[in-house]
Amino acid sequence: MARPRVVVTGANGVVGQVLCASLADEFDVVGVDLRRNGRKEIARVDMTRIRAAERALEGADVLIDLASAHWLQPWAKVYRNNIPAAWNALEAARRAGVRRVLSASSNHVTGLYERDEPYDRIVGGRYDGLDPARVRKIDTSMAVRPDSPYAVGKVMVEGAGRYYAESHGLSVICLRFGSLNAAGRPTEVRHFATLITHRDMIRLVRSCILAPADAPFRVFYGVSANTWRFWDIEDARREIGYEPRDDAEAWRKQFEVTSGTSATRRCNSLRRYVPNRLRTLCGRLR
Ligand SMILES: NC(=O)c1ccc[n+]([C@@H]2O[C@H](COP(=O)([O-])OP(=O)(O)OC[C@H]3O[C@@H](n4cnc5c(N)ncnc54)[C@H](O)[C@@H]3O)[C@@H](O)[C@H]2O)c1
């Protein structure tokens, strides 16, 4: 029997490279990206162009849509690139009769919860008096609170996914990825809550590809089994059998040694969340 054909957009990105390499053992993986980056096996496709998107998806069984500009990009980039690229991916998948679309959403769609207690303390590494088992998990039934133009774009992508699922019968799973970097381990204190390791990312995506076809539309968080995780993944465990095995705590000692004093770390993490004036003050104090 022919192996299922899996098309990965944004294949030259950090997540795309991890997935293409690992899934190739099991599936017929085809990677496409706006930039080839010297990798000959990656076809150059701009997903903002519908004809190109259609050609890329011919014969595909599964689409993993990762094509997107970085989360710090301004609205103009989100508007011109991320939204049309994601829309075209869904439309081309519909026309090609793709069995399932995995659409890369982001934890940033609920990023503003991190301004509130206790999440602000967790992402800043200020755990005093907190019991991780008692922290209320943020789940996908809670209101979105996007923290950036990029995150607003991801909310729209989730909306488009639901539209294609409910109006056109496409099976769409939106994945609110946590933090995945090339190193595959925490490089800032927030990652002790938000990390998804390479291995867990592969587990998550594999579970989504292989899940039964009765789920027309789902949204799941994608995070490792971190002690300080504050996103709910029980639905992903129950519905698609996602079982993360890694915990960012495994890197805690190494992180403490390599990332400077705790005061410096605290200052670095605070700088991400405090208003601009405090940020300047924090810079002077360092
Ligand atoms: N890495 C993370 O921690 C993380 C967290 C949350 C969400 N995500 C999402 O997961 C996806 C993959 O993330 P990543 O870290 O690999 O990002 P990345 O920036 O490393 O890779 C994204 C890739 O998409 C490509 N791309 C952008 N616009 C395109 C277009 N119009 N047509 C074709 N290709 C295009 C880029 O060239 C790039 O290679 C993205 O959608 C991102 O928003 C990632």
Beta strand %: 5-15%
Give the CA-CA distance, first to last residue: 61 Å
Q: Determine Rg (CA atoms, Å).
A: 19 Å
For the record, the CATH class is Alpha Beta
Overview of the structural elements:
The chain is of the alpha/beta class. Helix content is 41%, strand content 13%. It has one domain: NAD(P)-binding Rossmann-like Domain (Rossmann fold), CATH 3.40.50.720. The chain has helices at residues 14-23, 50-57, 75-96, 119-123, 149-168, 191-194, 198-210, 234-240, 252-258, 262-273, 276-285, and strands at residues 5-9, 28-33, 43-44, 62-65, 100-106, 172-177, 217-222. A seven-stranded parallel sheet has the order 3-2-1-4-5-6-7, with helices on both faces. α3 links the parallel β4 (62-65) and β5 (100-106). α1 packs across α7 (198-210) and α10 packs antiparallel against α11. It is globular and about 55 Å long. The chain binds nicotinamide-adenine-dinucleotide. Nicotinamide-adenine-dinucleotide is lined by residues 9-10, 12-16, 33-35, 45-48, 66-70, 81, 85, 104, 106-107, 177, 179-180.
Layout: helices, strands, pairs:
Layout: E1 5-9, H1 14-23, E2 28-33, E3 43-44, H2 50-57, E4 62-65, H3 75-96, E5 100-106, H4 119-123, H5 149-168, E6 172-177, H6 191-194, H7 198-210, E7 217-222, H8 234-240, H9 252-258, H10 262-273, H11 276-285
Parallel strand pairs: 1-2, 1-4, 2-3, 4-5, 5-6, 6-7
Helix pairs in contact: 1-7, 2-3, 3-5, 10-11
Bound molecules: nicotinamide-adenine-dinucleotide.
